[in-house]
Design brief:
With 113 residues, the chain is mainly beta. Helix content is 9%, strand content 28%. The protein contains one helix and eleven strands; from the N terminus they run E-E-E-H-E-E-E-E-E-E-E-E. Strand 8 and strand 9 (93-97) form a beta hairpin. The longest helix has 10 residues, at 33-42. The termini are far apart.
């Protein structure tokens, strides 16, 4: 089975290499593998628990209680987090929560306000 990416235009899985280009036999679209890799890195979309797109500076609320490691307490459901910053890691939101300080959250546990 081929490990080539699907066509970015028609999503066909039957792409093939021709020199330095990738070609789709169904729609005749040609692209370079480097351009496809850069486009997927630049186009990362962060979504909250209900599917809304998150951006830097958004305000979100927690949708479940979260226990903090190290005996720091619990963040309660409905806690509002202002001015989030999105980062590319396992915990994709960096924020500062009043009374708890700076921490990282997963976008699957928040809802955009």
């Amino acid at each position: 089975m081929s490990n080539l990416p699907a066509c970015p235009q028609c999503q066909s899985e039957y792409t093939y290499e021709d020199g330095a280009l990738l070609i789709c036999p169904e729609c005749a679209h040609e692209w370079s593998p480097q351009a496809a890799a850069e486009a997927t890195d630049a186009a990362r979309v962060y979504r909250d628990a209900v599917g809304a797109i998150l951006q830097d500076g958004d305000t979100v609320t927690l949708i479940k209680d979260l226990k903090l490691k190290g005996g720091g307490g619990t963040l309660k459901i409905g806690t509002k987090v202002k001015n989030i910053r999105l980062v590319d890691s396992d915990h994709d939101i960096d924020c500062k929560i009043d009374g708890f300080g700076a921490m990282s959250l997963k976008s699957e546990f928040v809802k955009k306000v």
